[in-house]
Amino acid sequence: MESQEDLDDDPPAFDLTDKDRDNLARKDEDFEPHTWTDLIQIIANNDLESLRRWPSDLKRYLKWTKQTKQAYGTITNYICQERLQWQPLPTSNPDDGPSFHIENPIPFADSRDFKVMYNDWPYGMTAGITHIVVWLKTRFDVEPTVGDLLPQSRQLIEDFVQHTFIDRLEKLGGAGDRVMWFRNWTGLQSVRGMDHIHVLVRDVPREIMDEWTRGRTTLP
Predict the structure, then answer these.
(1) Rounded to 5 degrees, what are φ and ψ at 219?
(2) What percent of the chain has pLDDT over 90?
């Protein structure tokens, strides 16, 4: 187990909150995973800082992040090259994040401008809940202080989630309370400069997951 001294001697790959440090001091058997009810409350209150990974996953995530930054320079570079296989335009500004050739500037308007994938490092959740990330080449309109979504962007996401996920599950006999989404504001994003939303679903058959992700898998 990593101690406080270990973390001080070997600086972590990203800034740790007090809750992260508390989590690192725990064992998995002492961790209470997020239930669906917990997640509803967290997202409704926009209390996204409360989302936590299993302690063992957080330790592995810290190690992976450090190694990936050493190999690729940034997590964004890794995501573009290895996971999305999107080529940034030569005119991209590193301070603003990569820009790409897009088919339609409106988010979600063209399927070539986004990809649905499993989250390689999901939060610690109870069985049956699956964590999806939707990556976009386009950008959302956000307010300038903390980078939270503007109403028109939120509506675009609501429409996309309804059409892509909820309507699909209703064809099985009812989506019920099986889909929710959130987007980290800028300060909480581990991959900045590339817009993405998180979608949580529960009790979804594997064939539908494969349909949404087009067979893309998580990290080996």
Answers:
(1) -60, 145
(2) 69
